[in-house]
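Subject: Sanity check before I submit

Could someone independently write out the structure tokens for this chain? I want to compare against mine line by line before I put it in a report. The sequence has 81 residues.
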Amino acid sequence: MKALMEYIAKALVDHPEEVRVRETGSGTRVRIELMVAPEDMGRIIGKNGKVANSIRNLLRVGAERVGKQATLEVVEPDNAS
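---
Independent answer below. Compare away.
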């Protein structure tokens, strides 16, 4: 899931070198935290959140293929620890 998220995010942003993905969780539940440069937040979220929802759908389908449930959280870099 982490590799899929990195691939998608790096294709969308202007600063792919600043994309960070953290995967946490256990068992069948996975939580993905996506961190991008502040100026790329709008590109990841999109108008009315449409891009973020599309990314969530792709992540959900990818997770279901391997028998997992995945959630995506877009995190501002200075709030990520």
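---
OP: Matches mine. For the report I'm noting this point. The helical segments are 2-12, 41-45, 50-65.
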